[in-house]
Amino acid sequence: MKTLVPTVALLCSTLFLLNSCSVSKNSVLLPKADIDNGIGTTSSCFVVKTDGSRQYYSTLKLVTGILTTPHLLGDNKDVIDAKDVLAYQDNKRFAVSQKLLTTKKTSYVASETLPGFAVRIANGKLSVYSRKFYNGNNAAIEYFVQTGDDGEIVSYSKAVMTELLKDNPKAADFYNSKVKVSPKSKKLLAAVDIYNNAQFISRN
């Protein structure tokens, strides 16, 4: 009996550690302002690679142009290919790869972000992302929503929003009201603002 108790305790401790180390595909992405990178300095620019590793930079720039394959440039010297990036934060925005979006549409647009990446335009308990894509010959914008830090980034629809807002009557009433707001995305963002406790929505 004396040897059984320590063994059970060790087993429980091991299971706890394994569970606490497990993360979803999204949890590694979420940026926190001025994260300490472990060497005594902080940076708000970083790249999350497809292998889950995160690299910090003092500067991070999007490089596009005629006859130029869109890529990121870290600290004016490190070339980072789009295929190796899962998400990134520069001094203007946080963007995620379309690999993390629940959509069948593929985008190759690269004006404000790497091709096909979605930009986070609202951040809080409920976050909103936008992505440009070509609908025929015209550029269009689609929206995605995410609950919490670990939630899936799902395609926006009225049905999805109704479900997400059901625990906040004030936000739900506003979103489902007949108040006309132009463009329609403003109503979405306003409802999200209410849902996020009427706090200022940071734009990245």
What are the key terms here?
204 residues; disordered C terminus; 4 helices; alpha+beta
What is the gist of this entry?
This protein is an alpha+beta fold and 204 residues long. It has four helices and 14 strands. A hairpin with a 2-residue loop joins strand 12 and strand 13.
Could you spell the SSE succession in H and E letters? Answer: HEEEEEEEEEEEEEEHHH
Number of helices: 4
Question: What does the main sheet amount to?
Answer: 9 strands, mixed
| Shape field | globular
Taking all Cα atoms into account, the compactness measure Rg is 20 Å
Question: Beta-sheet strand percentage?
Answer: 25-35%
- Uncertain stretches of 5 or more adjacent residues: 1-25, 31-42, 199-203
Q: Assembly state here?
A: single chain
Q: How many angstroms separate the termini?
A: 58 Å
- SS-based class: alpha+beta
Mean pLDDT: 79
Record the strand order, biggest sheet: 4-3-8-9-11-12-13-14-10
Q: What is the count of β-strands?
A: 14
Helix fraction, binned, reads 10-25%
Fold blueprint:
Layout: H1 4-21, E1 35-36, E2 42-43, E3 45-49, E4 54-57, E5 60-65, E6 68-74, E7 78-81, E8 85-89, E9 94-96, E10 101-102, E11 118-122, E12 126-135, E13 138-147, E14 153-155, H2 158-164, H3 169-176, H4 184-195
Parallel strand pairs: 10-14
Antiparallel strand pairs: 1-2, 3-4, 3-8, 5-6, 6-7, 8-9, 9-11, 11-12, 12-13, 13-14
Report what the structure shows.
- This protein has 204 residues and is α+β, with helices and mostly antiparallel strands.
- It is 22% helix and 33% strand.
- The protein contains 4 helices and 14 strands.
- The strands form 3 sheets. Strands 4-3-8-9-11-12-13-14-10 form a 9-stranded mixed sheet. Strands 5-6-7 form a 3-stranded antiparallel sheet, with no helix packed on it.
- It is globular and about 50 Å long.
